[in-house]
Amino acid sequence: MRLLLIIGPPAVGKMTVGRAVADRSSFRLFHNHHTIEMLLDVFDYGTPPFRTLNTEFRRRVMEEAASSGADLVFTFVWGLDAAAEAEYLE
């Protein structure tokens, strides 16, 4: 599995770039909205259940992609100055 991370602040075109990469390669797009939008129907953004499930869903998708050999483009909103964001990404 190859993993291409597209990281940056909100609304700068990460998903657009990810789609372009996926359209021109064997990579599949797994953008941050995939997990966020479904959770917002049930939990408020940033609440403990939201954070727990968002992290778990993303981890499981990555694990399954790795075990099946799927290449992924993953978009990730990153507060570049937040230590917790760097720890999560690591």
Walk me through this protein's architecture.
There is one protein chain. The protein has a single domain (3-89), classed as Rossmann fold (3-Layer(aba) Sandwich). It is built from four helices and three strands; from the N terminus they run E-H-E-H-H-E-H. The protein has helices at residues 14-23, 33-40, 48-68, 83-89; strands at residues 3-8, 28-30, 72-77. It has a three-stranded parallel sheet with strand order 1-3-2, covered by helices on one side.
What order do the helices and strands come in, and which of them pair?
Blueprint: E1 3-8, H1 14-23, E2 28-30, H2 33-40, H3 48-68, E3 72-77, H4 83-89
Parallel strand pairs: 1-3, 2-3
Helix pairs in contact: 2-3
* Total helical elements: 4
The CATH architecture would be 3-Layer(aba) Sandwich
> If you consult CATH, what is the topology?
Rossmann fold
Q: pLDDT under 50 segments (min length 5)? A: none
Main beta sheet: 3 strands, parallel
What strand order characterises the main sheet?
Answer: 1-3-2
Number of strands: 3
* Whole-number count of domains: 1
Mind telling me the CATH class?
Alpha Beta
What is the string of helix and strand elements?
EHEHHEH
Could you report the average pLDDT, rounded to the nearest whole number? 91
CATH superfamily: P-loop containing nucleotide triphosphate hydrolases
Which structural class do the helices and strands define?
A: alpha/beta
Shape: globular
* End-to-end distance: 17 Å
Helix content: 40-55%
Percent in strands: 15-25%
